[in-house]
Amino acid sequence: MDNETLEGCRAVYLTAEDLRIAASILYNAYHDDPFFVDSLFTSDKAAYEQKLRAAIREELNTLWQQKQALIGLFDHERLVGLACVVTQEVPLGEGRYWHWRLKMLLGTGWQSTQALMKKESSIVELLPSKHCGILQFIALAPNEQHKGLGHKLVQAVVSWCDEQPDLDGIGVFVAQESHLQLFTQHDFVSLGELNIGSVHGQLLFYSVQQDDSLL
Predict the structure, then answer these.
(1) pLDDT at residue 89 is higher than 90
(2) pTM summary value
(3) For residue 77, what are the CA distances in angstroms to 72, 73, 74, 169?
(4) 53-57, 69-73, 205-209: segment of lowest average pLDDT
(5) Percent of the chain with pLDDT over 70
(6) Starting at the edge strand that comes first in sequence, how are the strands of the sheet with 9-13 ordered?
(7) Coil, helix or strand for 154?
(8) CA atoms in the 13 A half-sphere facing the CB of 77
(9) Burial environment of residue 135 by CB neighbours within 10 A (0 to 12, 13 to 18, 19 or more)
């Protein structure tokens, strides 16, 4: 998938130098996300924003350290979007490593950390096998939205998924109608409705498309 050209954009793995900009893109994209608002928000908006920054920073760094798929969409040298996939090779939910729990606890608080783990556990329970991934983040920079780049980013994710020999597919929790429409156009199907905290949504799943020529 490296250096894959998508009509003027290219989808490649992020480098360490890209993580700061990636975190900024994610923060802006997820600022009003129903799950994060429900899990992290208090009456203090500044405190919520600080927690959100911490949660995104720690998760992005953890995914990087654990060598998970961090896929960036670039317009020439400029990062315009990214998607982050975590596989079940990494302990998720209640199985999260203690050092992740500690860092997330310090950054977001006990209840928020518990909510993040519960979300993962709820998703994992509905996945069809232990060989599936979760789309943790997917986002475009604010000034790059409504240009059709969301489709290019999702296509980059499914292309990556199809190339993984030990992966059965990837799931994503969707709570907004526009996101539901985007993913279903790329062969994601619903595995069922899911309530996470007070947020109602669906767990969508993309099954790996096998290459018949290799069968």
Answers:
(1) no
(2) 0.90
(3) 11, 10, 6, 30
(4) 205-209
(5) 94
(6) 4-6, 9-13, 69-75, 78-87, 132-140, 169-174, 199-207, 189-196
(7) helix
(8) 1
(9) buried
Q: How does pLDDT run across 162-177, given as a tens digit for each residue?
A: 999 999 999 999 998 8
C-alpha–C-alpha distance, residues 200 and 215, integer Å: 40
Q: Distance between CA 175 and CA 196 in Å, rounded?
A: 10
Could you give the CA distance from residue 122 to residue 46 in angstroms, rounded to a whole number?
29
Burial 164-189 (b: 16+ CB within 10 A, else e): beebbbbbbbbbeeebbebbeeeebe
Both tokens assigned to 14:
């992020």
CB 37 within 8 A of CB 197: no
List residues bridging with 31 in a β-sheet: none
Q: What is the pLDDT of residues 11-62, one digit of tens each?
A: 999 999 999 999 999 999 999 999 999 999 777 899 999 999 999 999 999 9
Residue pointed to by tokens 């109608």: 177
For residues 25 and 23, give the distance between their C-alpha atoms in angstroms, rounded to a whole number: 5
> What does DSSP assign to residue 168?
-
Q: Which tokens is 38 given?
A: 């429900």
